[in-house]
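Fold it.
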Amino acid sequence: MKMTKKIFITLLLMVFAPLAGMAQDNVEAEVEVTVLSRYLWRGQQKGGVSLQPGATLSWKGAFVNVEGNKGFNREDEEELDINIGYQFPFGLNVGLSDMWNYEDRNHGQYFFYKDKETSHQLEGNIGYSCRYFDLQAYCMFWGNDYKLDGSRAYSTYVELAVPFKLGGLDWTVSAGMTPMESAGAYTTLYDEKGQEEGWERNYFYADGPACVSAVLRAQKELRYKSIEIPVFVELNTNPYMKTAAFLAGFTFKPF
């Protein structure tokens, strides 16, 4: 566990140090705030109305990004993600993420890295982007990522997105799937009187190969003075869970 944490911190410094050292050499910085009517992520219901701030530093393809999520309802998940990576000129990208969600079991402590008890998840990704499509693959390899039998799950998610223009809007159709059983947990069920009446299995993505996300998004970019405001609506479905939702959002991006 300590070695894994050291590896992540080392990689973070390897990306951030050049950015700091080259502060006068085309370093780009960006901040944005997104407001969502509902928070859905990789087919999972994560919360209701949500506020998601983000900040990115980039230099010649390397980047460091910090993102958060805070729901307006107390029961919604609080989230903090740190992402580092590199975008090659020919479209290939690689990255590493430390994803954290607030959990009562460790009193919401962020700096709590005990394996099998931490709320952190480390995930690697590789992908390729061009004008015609964007293909990304993600795999968790440390932290809160275990199957029901206690073995490491290596929860994996692969997504293909295709952009197109229609009627003056920017559209994206995407599909995401998992190739195998993902992390899972047992959830206790209660009756109307609050008495335990059994349990059920819950999975991070699915209990085997499955399509867990199918999304159609329409977006229009508005501009007001020095602020870009992309506004979007989205039909978001999870074929595995047999769920669907229609949501909207907008982003403030100073430029």
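The chain has a mean pLDDT of 87.
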